[in-house]
Amino acid sequence: MKSMNTMSPVAELPEATENATHATPDAAPGNGAPRGDQSPRAPDAEAHAAAPDTAAAVAPAGDQSPRALLKQLQQQFKAFRDCLPLAIGIDKQVLARLPGLNRKTMRAALGIHTGSMRYLRAMEKATVRYDLDGTPGAEVTDTHRLHAKELLQQRFKKEADRKKAEREAEAQAEADRKRQEKLQQLASKFAKR
């Protein structure tokens, strides 16, 4: 089943936890808005550019991993730290505050964040999106809540299937071990004659 991450605050990202490092900086034309969603944009990033200390705290992004960047974003911004539903176009806000970031790394970090179980659970029940500082903005649409719920259900099913396959493999290995043990007992019994 092809899944489009319609609730992601950035351009269409691949399934975040599995393919986050493959996100591309210019993945879709809407630069963050899901297709057909005409919801109002988050407050302009220029309004947040006045934070002088935030940009100075950026580590060189050339060799920074997406996970390291995500940790940095969580330390610097309330929306990431508290796992709040992110405003559509949050990538522009991040770039305005941290202009030296590698776009590909930033999008991969956002993909990891928005694909996390914690974020999806927050989105499933959310009513409002937030900017970097935690200021409420646009509403979360029913479509985005439903998408988060579907992604969670897919993950739970995938995990249940994995555990079931693991149990079946263990049961098969145990049956094989017992069969081998029986064969050895029979072999040793007939070897004595």
Describe this structure as you would to a colleague.
This protein has 193 residues and is mainly alpha-helical. The protein has one domain (1-193): ProQ/FinO domain (Fertility Inhibition Protein O, Chain: A, Domain 1, Orthogonal Bundle), CATH 1.10.1710.10. It has eight helices and two strands; from the N terminus they run αααααααββα. It has helices at residues 16-19, 52-56, 66-76, 78-81, 90-97, 103-114, 117-125, 142-191; strands at residues 128-130, 136-139. A two-stranded antiparallel sheet has the order 1-2. A hairpin with a 5-residue loop joins strand 1 and strand 2 (136-139). The longest helix is centred in the C-terminal third of the chain and has 50 residues, at 142-191. Residues 1-8 and 10-61 have low confidence and may be disordered.
Q: What is the name of the CATH superfamily? A: ProQ/FinO domain
Count of DSSP E strands? Answer: 2
Total helical segments: 8
Work out the radius of gyration: 24 Å
| Helical percentage | 40-55%
Task: Write the CATH architecture name.
Answer: Orthogonal Bundle
Taken together, the total number of domains comes to: 1
Sheet-strand content, in percent, reads under 5%
